[in-house]
Design brief:
Layout: E1 45-51, E2 61-63, E3 66-70, E4 75-80, E5 86-91, E6 101-103, E7 106-110, E8 115-120, E9 126-131, E10 141-143, E11 146-150, E12 155-160, E13 166-171, E14 181-183, E15 186-190, E16 195-200, E17 206-211, E18 221-223, E19 226-230, E20 236-240, E21 246-250, E22 264-266, E23 269-274, E24 278-283, E25 289-294, E26 304-306, E27 309-313, E28 318-323, E29 329-334, E30 344-346, E31 349-353, E32 358-363
Amino acid sequence: MKYRWLLLACFAFTGLAVAQPQDWTMFRGTPSMVGLGGMLPKAPKLLWTHEAGSGIVSTAAIAGDTVYVGTQDGKLLALKLADGKPRWIFTAGNPISSSPCVVSNAVFFGDEDGNVYAISRANGKPLWKFRAGEKIISSPTPAPGVILIGSYDNYLYCLYAGTGKVKWKFKADAQVHCSPCVAGGVVMIAGCDGKVRAIDLQTGKQRSAAEIEGNLAAAPACADGVAYVGSLLGDYLAVRAKDGKVLWKIEQGEEGGACYAAAAVTGDAAIFASRAEKVMCLARSNGKTRWTFRMKGASDSSPVISGGTVYVGSDDGVLYGLDVKTGKKVWQFTAGAEIKASPAIAHGRLVIGSGDGAIYCFGK
């Protein structure tokens, strides 16, 4: 079956030149992974809670009037954005840490048994399945006609979106845990092999690579040809895509300060969350610290910016809203368990899941 793949209208590859999406169709909102969401009310109110019955680490996708989210007991849920009631449930049977990606009439995601699925957006029926060699934590990223996703078999796969067949695959030197970033005609991955790579979107050939001390698991966020990413040593970096040059590297040197979360990028700010129990805002121009906010737990949740507020979850069970300019707390919500998923923001709503299986929706 053939599909007409209607990708994002503003699929500009200049990072911050991309308009904020009305929908939130994938991890980080857009292929550049910069984490810019739509507008929310100043003090979002809890509108509904859906009890999924299993832990959530997958970030939700919001497309039209439906929320899509994966669970640790292997289910992909399609919920009504208005009230959280189920539209349909697809059972993969293996944990889903991968965040769903919605393109036209299909929902794509991976599971921890190494399967990549395309599911009908209308009714939850399978369209195709691709089998990788190892588990998948990476979330799929769309590009015209294809889906890109990493696997623990060391490969980055470029799959035809209509069939699931391989267009090309790139072999890294270790697992591809991160979600791929697409910007400027390249796919960028930050790998468990300690390299930040830029790979040609059309051919799958490497254009550049920066070798970093310490491995990487976070998705790179790319703006204006520069990728911003944190390492498992707790360092923060800016890497130029065209030649792999490290423009700056901030060494934190904190025990247990690994960064699994993707950065949120806006203006001259790159905002990181880490297992060092803090959120940091660094200047994109030189890496200097603008502010630091201390939490009471580690964070694998990738920050998302909505207007003048950045939202981020923590293992302390709190969803924080911080002022982008100052880092001061302006809002918070206490959930019943740790929050490892990242916020999804669209249509005036924020949706996020927690470790006890509760899915929360906030808005006006």
